[in-house]
Amino acid sequence: MASENLGEFLTGNKIQNSAYSINMLRNVNCQVLCQVTLSKVEAHMLGKHIQYNYHNNWIIDNLPSASLGHAQGGMQLKHYAGGFPIGFIAPETKEAYVYNHVNIYLEYHNPDGKDGHRVVGFAVEPISVHHRFSGGFLWDGQSSEGFAKPLETCPATGHMDRSNVMEFQRVADGESIIYTYDVMWSYSETAWASRWDVYLNEDHMVPAQVHWYSITNSILVVLFLSLLVVSILVRNLRRDIAGYNALEQLTDEEKEEEQEESGWKLVHADVFRPPSSWPMAYCIMVGSGAQIGVCGLVTILLAAIGFLSPARRGSLMTATLVFYMLCGCLAGYVSSRLYKSFKGRQWQLCTLLTATSFPGLCFFVFIFFNTILAFFRSTASVPFLDLIIVAAMWCCVSIPLVFLGAYFGYKEDYITFPTVTSTIARAIPEPSFSMKPLVSISLAGMVPFAAAYVELFFIMTSLWMDQFYYVFGFTLAVYLILIITCAEVTVLLTYYQLCSENHRWWWFSFFTAGSPAFYTFVYSLFWFRSLEASKMLITYMLYFGYMTLICIAMLCVTGSVGSLMSLWFVRKIFGTIKVD
Q1: pLDDT tens profile 472-503
Q2: Selection from 485, 552, 486 nearest residue 513 by Cα
Q3: Of all helices (H) and strands (E), which one includes residue 59?
Q4: pTM across the whole model
Q5: Could you give the CA distance from residue 140 to residue 264 in angstroms, rounded to a whole number?
Q6: Under a CB-based contact definition with an 8 Å cutoff, are residues 542 and 572 in contact?
C-alpha cells in the first residue's frame, strides 16, 4: 500500500497494487487473472456490496479509470469520475451478478523529439460473463495449467464484447468465478500535459454556460443589494446625522420646543455595551470564523491559480489543513481584541477555547466516524498513525499559533468607542413583527444563499458523488460574492434594529450574517434524496454529521464577516454625531 500525502489518507484514498499485468503497447486477449470459489458468507457479502453500489477505483500512471457502459438504447456512455461498479442487480429477478471481466482501454502519446511513450487515456469496460474452460476442464485456482487453458466463453480472435456474452456470472454460494481481462492500446493526439482536461470537464457534460449563469445570477444579486443599501443607508444616514448635529447646536429653550428625539441616536449610551449573554462565546466564534474564512480564501485562490489541481490527489485537503493551522494566529488575535474590549478577565480560557473549540469538535467527530468505519473495515478509515500526526499538528502548531496571536492581541490597546456606555442598560421597546430579531435573521439568509446556490450544487456533487471539481475560479467569485452580500445584508438590518432602539446588535449581526448556513443545511436535506444513498445507518450519520460541521464552519465564517462589518459600521455612524 502506498500513499502520496497526508491529505490522501484523510480523504480515504489508499492505493494498493493489483494482480493485473500490463505492459506498454502489448495487447492482451481474455487473460485469466484468478479463480475464486464463493462461500456462503462471501457470496452474501459480495451481493450486499453490489446492492450498495460499491465501485472499483483504478489508477494507472496517476490517471483514474473512466467507466464505459451502455444505455438501454445501446449507446455507449463514458463517465470519468467515481470508478466503475463491481456488479449489478437484475431488475426482474433481483439477483446479483458480478463484473468478472474488464476491457482495459489505454491511450498513449509520443512526445515530439523524445523516445518512449506516455499514457494519456485510461478507461475500463466491465462485463459479466459466466466463464467455462474448453473441454470441461475444472481448475483448482492454483495450478499454472489453468492460466494457459483456453476459455470457450471467450472469442477465438479479437477482444471480449458484450455481444459474446451468453450467460452472466451469478453471485451465489459455491459459484466458481473466473476473473479475466483484455488490454487494448491505441494512439492518441492528446498531449501528456492536457490528459486531465477530459476528466475535469467530464467531456463537456456540464456546459460552461451553467457556471457563467451562476456567476451572472450572483453578480446581479450583489448589484441589486448594493444599490439598495446605498440608496437606503446613505440617504437616511445623511438626514439623521444632519438632524442630530443640528439639534445639538440649539439652545436649551429651542431644544424643549423640538419634538423628542427618536431613532438610533437614543441608544448611544448602550450601543457598545458588551453582549449580555455569552460574550466569551461570541469572541470565540468570531475569531474561529476569521480563521476559517481566511484559510478558505487562500486555499480557493491557490486552487484557482492552479497550484492545487485534482491531478495531485490529496493536495487540496493537505493545503486546507496547513493553512488552517497557520491562520490560528489570526483567530487568537481577533478573539483576544474583542474580549479585551469587552473587559473580560478570563483571557486564558478565552484563548484556549478559541484554539480548541471548533477544531476539537471536528477532530472528535472525525475520530468517532473513523472508529465506526474501521469497525466496518472500510477503506475510508484513516490509519491510527495519521490520526496521531493530525493531533500532533493541532497540539504542536495550531494551538501555539493561537496563543501567539492572542499575545499580540492583548498587547494592543482597547478598541476605542466614540460614545460612553451608561451604567444601567436602556429598556428595549417592543418591536413590530417585521423588526423582531428572529424574523430578520430568518429572512436575511435568503439573499446570500440565492447568490450561491447554483455553484453549491456542483460543490455538493463533487463532495458526495466523487466527481472532479476544478472550476475554482468560479468558486472564488461566488465565495467573495457570498461574503459581500452577507456584509451588506447585515449592515442594513443592523441599522434598522438600531432605529427601532434595539441596542443588542452583537449576536444579532452574527446570526444575521450566518443565516445562509441554516439555508445550506436545509438544502442538504433535500439534496440527500438525489444522492440515492444506501439505507445503512452509517451513511446517514456520515452525511448529516459532516454537513453539520460544514454548516457550522459556514456560520462562523459569514457570522464573523457580518459581526466585524457591523462593528465598523456602528463605530462609524456614532462617531459622526455629537452626544452629551
Answers
A1: 888 888 899 889 889 988 988 988 888 888 88
A2: 486
A3: strand 59-60
A4: 0.82
A5: 87
A6: no
